[in-house]
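Figure S7 source data.
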Amino acid sequence: MSPVHATGELLASRKVGAYHHLSVVARGVAEEFRPGTFVAVTVGTPGTSATLAPRPLWIHRVRPVGGHGLALQLVLEVRGAGTRWLAEQPVGARLAVTGPLGRPFALPKEPVACVLVGEGYSAAPLFPLAERLRERGCPVTLLLGAPDESRLLSALEARRSARAVTVVTRDGSVGQRGEIADAVTEVLRRAEAAVVYAAGPEPMLHAVAAAAEAHGAWSQCAVEQPLACATGLCHGCPVPVVGEDGVARTVRACVDGPVFRGDRVRWTELVR
Ligand SMILES: Cc1cc2nc3c(=O)[nH]c(=O)nc-3n(C[C@H](O)[C@H](O)[C@H](O)COP(=O)(O)OP(=O)(O)OC[C@H]3O[C@@H](n4cnc5c(N)ncnc54)[C@H](O)[C@@H]3O)c2cc1C
Ligand code: FES
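Tokens for the predicted FE2/S2 (inorganic) cluster complex:
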């Protein structure tokens, strides 16, 4: 299925902790959503933004909104000019949205124990993934991390989506104090995990993939490489991997990923 280019409308924009939660109706995009796919949103005033790369954002949820059909729920952390522009858009603003883009998380065929590990806003695609896994009878455990409570995504909702939830924050403001890497091995052991899904910064993904391998579980990691075109044309998002044939090669984060098998990525060679 090719991605849809749509002119979306911003239905809602609200600040929750350190993030902005956006609700965007973009016809045809939400209908094809799979957990792990993302959208590319053009930033800047229409007509003046042609030279700016669109900003990739995870699809957090797809929800029906009365009178509008399905809307995309996005979680935004303001980093630079593009995300700031998006956060400042008024309700009713028109947005150029392309998606869904990328390869989603692969779902297990059997109802096996799954651990979902997410840091900060990057945990966004794990919530709909948890729902899909539960529909398939998989016991789901969530491990969520963040620098502090304001950057912890939907901890309350996590308790509804999973059988068990572990929270770690760097400053100890909620949950255990520390890093995901400190907690992941014990969580995998307790959950008797067969499959591990992770989304977050690369050092965390690397640690989770290594812990999964040591535990004997499959891992799938959603890699956030900065993207230029986000559609596979520019080759500006290289991810070094080992192919199924055992041969090292470089693939594109935006179309060959963003979800990769953790044991296939050559993490130490991944350059941001
Ligand atoms: C597949 C994918 C999904 C993403 N999903 C989300 C999301 O759901 N919510 C969200 O807030 N952000 C998400 N991001 C990150 C977001 O796209 C970037 O933060 C954004 O493009 C930065 O644009 P800017 O103009 O605000 O900042 P810029 O001025 O372009 O950059 C500001 C700072 O952010 C850093 N940065 C740029 N791109 C990334 C990146 N990919 N990861 C980490 N740091 C980056 C830059 O190095 C710089 O230090 C995602 C990125 C990818 C690749
Ligand atoms: S960003 Fe252009 S090919 Fe991936």
